[in-house]
Specification:
Strands 1, 2, 3, 4, 5, 6, 7, 8, 9 and 10 form a 10-stranded antiparallel beta sheet that branches. The protein has 1 helix and 10 strands, in the order αββββββββββ. It starts with a helix and ends in a 6-residue tail after the last strand. The longest helix is centred in the N-terminal third of the chain and has 7 residues, at about 5-10. The protein is mainly beta. It has a single domain (about 5-160), classed as lipopolysaccharide transport protein A fold (Sandwich). Strand 9 (about 135-145) and strand 10 form a beta hairpin.
Amino acid sequence: MALRLLSFALGAGLFAFGGMVQAQEARIAFGDLAQDTTLPVEVTAETFAVNNADGTAVFSGNVVVTQGEMKLSAAEVRVAYNDDQTAIEQLIASGGVKIVNLGDAAEAREAVYTIDSGQIVLTGDVLLTQGPSAMKGQKLTVNLTDGTGLMEGRVTTTFVPGGN
């Protein structure tokens, strides 16, 4: 998949630069389809620790979080509950975070997935790949509800002309 929105916005002018562009932010598409954020979330890990005294929970060791077509993997995922401790509000992933959704992949140091809004914010040396194209930045915000995203922080993109 090519960087659909980015390539439309920048048009033919990009081809003159040999396929590499730098900017402060870029809007992107993530995955071919919007993610159904009401689907069940499955988490697998080597260990799961719960502390009822302070209301914390941590999955660690080869953690994989799956929801529909989206898969998030990391060394550790902390669980943040809502104010009354009745539902999971966020999953905070750290350590080699990778997210794959319908062929698109994103890597970062950390990611925060807010389940109700369907928003994932990846931070720290973010790399997004879509087929042969790639984009780097410091922060990627992905909206799984509509399949869009925003890359920020000295964005560099490399794409293959003549792709999608």
